[in-house]
Design a protein that fits this description.
single chain, 135 residues, alpha+beta, Mannose-Binding Protein A, Chain A, five-stranded mixed sheet, globular, C-type lectin domain-containing protein, C-type_lectin-like, disulfide bond, C-type_lectin_CS
């Protein structure tokens, strides 16, 4: 088994073999966060292990939660990572009772840092901090 450590640029943190960073430009809507990540040469985070990712974020941030790069905007109740197009595991990653599409308008993926499991659905136009993943 290869135990090589991922080397990430300054200001980034590693989870598995991927590098992530929390931009310091404030809160954004989900779409604006996606665009901002792109401007950084990255994309909204799509962690392979959401629970491990959540525990790692807890070490680096005091923010309540963050936008991640998933949504069900294309097909309601079918949650996919936007960049990779793969399904998001709903059984192990969603907080109980989520996703609930409260008010009929929660289509974007949000990670609540202090919940286990951490995933929640939120309206895409709400303003939150976000995490980018470097390619």
């Amino acid at each position: 088994m290869n135990n090589a450590t991922t080397s990430c640029p300054d200001g980034h943190f590693a989870v598995g073999r991927r590098c992530f960073f929390i931009p310091k430009d404030g809160q954004k809507s989900w779409e604006d966060a996606q665009e901002a990540c792109s401007e950084y040469g990255a994309f909204l985070a799509e962690p392979m292990d959401v629970n491990l990712f959540r525990s790692r974020i807890g070490e680096d941030s005091t923010h309540y939660g963050f936008w991640l790069g998933g949504s069900d905007r294309e097909n309601e109740d079918i949650w996919k990572w936007e960049k990779h197009g793969t399904m998001i595991d709903q059984e192990e990653s969603w907080y109980p009772g989520e996703p609930n599409n409260y008010g009929g308008a929660e289509d974007c993926l949000f990670l609540v840092k202090d919940r286990d499991p951490p995933l929640d659905d939120r309206p895409c136009d709400h303003l939150y901090y976000y995490i980018c993943e470097r390619t």
